[in-house]
Structures are given as C-alpha cells and as structure tokens.
Amino acid sequence: MKKLINAPEAVLADALKGIEAAHADLRVDHAGRVIYRATPKDQGTVALVSGGGSGHEPLHGGFVGFGMLDAACAGEVFTSPTPDQMQAATKEVDRGAGVLHIVKNYTGDVMNFEMAAELAAMEASVDVKTIVVNDDVAVQDSLYTAGRRGVGLTVLLEKIVGAAAEQGRSLDDLVALSEKVNGEGRSMGMALTSCTVPAAGKPTFDLPDDQMEIGVGIHGEPGRHRVPLADAHHIAEQLVEPILADLDFGSSPTIVMLNGMGGTPLIELYLMYGEVAAILQKHGVTIARNLVGNYITSLDMAGCSVTVLRADDELLSLWDAPVETAGLRWGR
Amino acid sequence: MKKLINAPEAVLADALKGIEAAHADLRVDHAGRVIYRATPKDQGTVALVSGGGSGHEPLHGGFVGFGMLDAACAGEVFTSPTPDQMQAATKEVDRGAGVLHIVKNYTGDVMNFEMAAELAAMEASVDVKTIVVNDDVAVQDSLYTAGRRGVGLTVLLEKIVGAAAEQGRSLDDLVALSEKVNGEGRSMGMALTSCTVPAAGKPTFDLPDDQMEIGVGIHGEPGRHRVPLADAHHIAEQLVEPILADLDFGSSPTIVMLNGMGGTPLIELYLMYGEVAAILQKHGVTIARNLVGNYITSLDMAGCSVTVLRADDELLSLWDAPVETAGLRWGR
C-alpha cells in the first residue's frame, strides 16, 4: 500500500490537523472529531449538520462554511461517526431555530444520526429534523444500505439547502426543500480500479485490467454489473441512461455534476463531462449549471459518477447564492 | 491502461470539448487548441498568455479568467504547444499594451514561446515579454530542461501577476513583478507511483512497491534519488528541507502550496499539509496563506509537491485580490 500517511490508525487525526492548519475559517474539535465554522451563524437561524465516514473528501468537512454546513462529523475511513459526535455537534450549532441532519443513506449513518437526534431533543431540547439522501439509481439494496445509497446528490443538496438556511428559512421549510431536492436528483457511478482502505492495506475488491464496475458505491460496494472496459462515450452512456430511465427530466433545466472518485485526473473528468453533456443534450435535457471535479470521493479509486438534478428557478437561485467553503466557493 | 478516454490520440481534443461545455466564461479555439476568456479584458491592459503540454490540469486552461490568464495554449499530453498556437493566442489577446508570456522552464516550451514572441512582434507589432519560471530545487538539469524545471510556483505567479495586470500595470512592471515572484519561490515534489501517458499506454517509469522518487518532475522525470517509502512526516521533511536549504525564508510571511499530482486523494493532501506546515513552523517560517489541492498535476501520478513563496505585503495583497477561474475562485 502506497499512501501519504503516517500510520493507518492515525489517518483521520492527522488529516484533521492539516484541515485546521489550512483553513482559518474552520474550527476543529480534535477529540470529538467535528469540523465547525470558526464563526457560528446568527441566533435564530437553522443549522445544518452532516457527516459520515472519512475518505470522501472534500465531503463533508470541505463543505462547512457560509452557505453550506455548520458542522461535519468525521468518522474513521468508511465508518459512520458515532451518535456522541453527532449529538455534540447538534447541540453546539443549534441557534435556537432547530438543526437539520443531512444523512447519506447507509444503515450505520442513519441509525446513529437517529439516535443523536433523539438524545439532542431529550437532553437539550433541540428541534432536530432529518433528510436521508438516496439518489443512487445503481442498485436497490447494497452492502451497507437498505434501499438506495446516498451519493453525489448530497453535495448539491448541502449547497442548495445551505443557501436557504442562510436566508433564515424555518426548519420545516428546509425539510420540504430537502425532500424536493432528493426527489428531483439521481446519480450513477463507475470504477476503473478499487480503492484501498488504509486499515485494510490492500484493494477492497479485485477488478481485472480489462473490466470496470458500473454502478459502484462510494465505498467500493458492488454495482449493477462488471463489464468489459469501454471508451469514454460508452461509459457515459452506461451512467446517463440508467439515470434517465429512472426519472423523466423532460426539458426542464438541470444541474449536472461530473464527479471524480479521487484517483482520476481532471483531464479525464473534463473529457467525461463533454461526453455526458452531449448525451444529455441528445435526450433533450437542458443543462443550466454544472460542476466538474472531485467532490465526493472514494479514497484513491479511479472512476467517476454523474448526478443530474432537475432544478426550477428556486433551486437555481439557491445554487447561485454565495458560498464560502474549502470545497465550493463563489460569489460573495 | 485504464483511463476515461475515447482514444489516446483524441484525449486533448475531447477534453477541450468538455472544458468548453463546462465553462460558459471560456471560449475554446478547437482547431488552434487555445483556451480564451469569453469576454476579453479592456483595451490598454497587458494580457497574459501561458501554456504547455496537457496532463497538468487545472494548469493552464483552468487558470484562464478574470484575475489570471487571458489565454492558455494546450499542447498534446506532456508535449509543448507549437509556436503557431502561441503566436495566434498572443495576437488575439493583445489589447495594445503588450503581452506577457509565462513559460515553465522546459526546453521545448522556452524555444517555442521565443519563436512565437518574435513572430508576433514582427508580424503584428505586439510588444511581448517573457518570464521563464524555474522554481524546482530538485535537480539542476533534467530530462527536458537546461537549468531548473518550472513547476508549482507557476500557479502562484499566474495568480499574483494576473491580479497586477487587472490593475492596469505596465508590461515592464509585470516583468519585474514576475522576476520577483520567481526569485522568491521554490518547489520540490515526490512520487509514490508513475503516471501513464495515454499514447504510451504504460507507466512512464517503474517504481517498486517499497520505494518512492524524491524530486520527481511533473512529467515523471527522474528526481534526486529513489529511496525507501517513508511515513508522511519523513516525506514532508524530504520536501521541505531542500527548499529551506536553497533559500533562506527567515521569518517573512509566505504563501505555501501543497499540491497533489493527480492520483492522490484529498485526505492525504490535507494530512501532508499538516506535516509540511508543522515543519515550516518549527523552522520559524510564517505561513500567511495556503493552498491545498490539485493545481499542477501529472496525469494520474500519486504524489505531491510543496511550493513556498516569500510574500511581502504587495504579493499578499495581489494574492488576495479577486479571481474567477475554473481552478481558483474567490473574492469578487
């Protein structure tokens, strides 16, 4: 295993030191493993908390800041954070208007956030609501999930709902908005290679030189099928078509993300975006906004995913609103 | 070779299609292989042109836009663009105040930009000046270079000099500023793995599982030495110490970039940044600003580089000035 680390068991603690050193506008609770905004938002505003296993950076810590999250709980690599972490973060960021938990649909995350919400309500009277993101059209149930997995749409949801929270909208309003986003977005991913979890020391799965995994999960969970390696155009078709088969986007405006899995260079991500955009346009889908790069990764996995979100004027205007985080930054 | 491409010979053309599809504020000349701002800057303002082999994205095309470059010439992967491309770009962006060529020190790039400058001066009376960036302390001469290679400092120079150009400074003034930045900055890189050039179809060099290349070039050129794999702390020492041995930074403020080579996940880059920052601080170096991520890459190479730039108030204020490009964006 070749990695820029000190020791497999120290990866998360050491990475948190680097995040703190790099970003003066973040505050890191090293013992509790939570990343906060250095300057909390105003009293009376709903706060957003997310989190999950590490190894998906910039998700979630890179999306803490003005216009997105208030706190991100970091679990060990590909391991859910604990209810304790989530409860502490929830109590810490509550500004009296309630807290929204943004949870990717993995059984451990869902259970632990549920427990944290109950504890925060009971012990500190925090009003907590939850959105479980489940946008991955690849498989119905999966290795760590009942129902669809939560993947790339989480990035778009954190941006859009984060912008709405800054406007002072109510918790109920943000829940409704989150459900709208979750209902209107779909994703599909693929892998050319496995990732290697530091604690395991070897690739999560074997993938022969002439094959790829279509529909792979962000922890290397099996996808729909393993098929012969294809060119970028045919890979793009295998990602876009299941998305379009699952939801009729009509000719509505959409936000499209072409996301890298961590080990794929940007030149390939742009090349793939060109293919994806052309296929979507051929199907009459209108791309109003896009995002190309590494936003929800799987350690060093080579591969990519496509997310398509149908976005009306409300969603587009929230998307365009200013954001200031390590991972997304524009407009203020 | 596992890559998200259609064919090795189509990589650049296809990637340019994706860049155009993704960024409405860029204009791509597909035949000429030049990336321009969609909206040219004002008449009477000096324009900045850079370029080089592809495979280093976001450099240089990702740095075209307000506050940085006016045009980027894209060569084939790891191959210099031609004088024709550079001459066309130079004539196209000239707004009557001259054009600065920003060139990384590789023999092909230097020769071709020189020829382009002469042609543009002769045929179109464009006043062209050149800065050759040569910040890599690893080796004196290298596979494609006489003298030191130009690497990570190019990113910082394009940002700083780009900001100064927006202020309306003269060409001579920008040349002096470029020389100042080039004199005050140093870089050093390392690789855990080779990159694979699409046209070659196999890794550029072999690197055993228990070894790493210290001082590697951004095309996989040999570095200072091949040594046993070490932990992140000791890798950081092997990058920072040659930089500090080459230039005495004293306790002046610096801008530090921890750059990923393309195949290294962000969690490892943050971890490395934490180690680099701690070592610099131990040596009394003050970090005033930083950048962590993939900015000048080597296709899918796993590894990283460190750049340290001594930055007085002038350089820091130009660094902080607004920038709106695909690869760097803040503040407006």
TrEMBL record, chains A, B:
Pfam families: Dak1. It is an enzyme of class 2 (transferase). Pathway: Polyol metabolism; glycerol degradation. GO terms for cellular component: cytosol. Residues 7-330 form the DhaK domain. GO terms for molecular function: glycerone kinase activity; phosphoenolpyruvate-glycerone phosphotransferase activity. Its EC number is 2.7.1.121. It catalyses: dihydroxyacetone + phosphoenolpyruvate = dihydroxyacetone phosphate + pyruvate. One of its GO terms (biological process) is glycerol catabolic process. Keywords: Glycerol metabolism, Kinase, Transferase. InterPro entries: DhaK_1 (IPR012736), DhaK_dom (IPR004006), Dihydroxyacetone_Kinase (IPR050861). Homodimer. The dihydroxyacetone kinase complex is composed of a homodimer of DhaM, a homodimer of DhaK and the subunit DhaL. NCBIfam families: dhaK1. This is phosphoenolpyruvate--glycerone phosphotransferase. It comes from Microcella pacifica. The gene is dhaK.
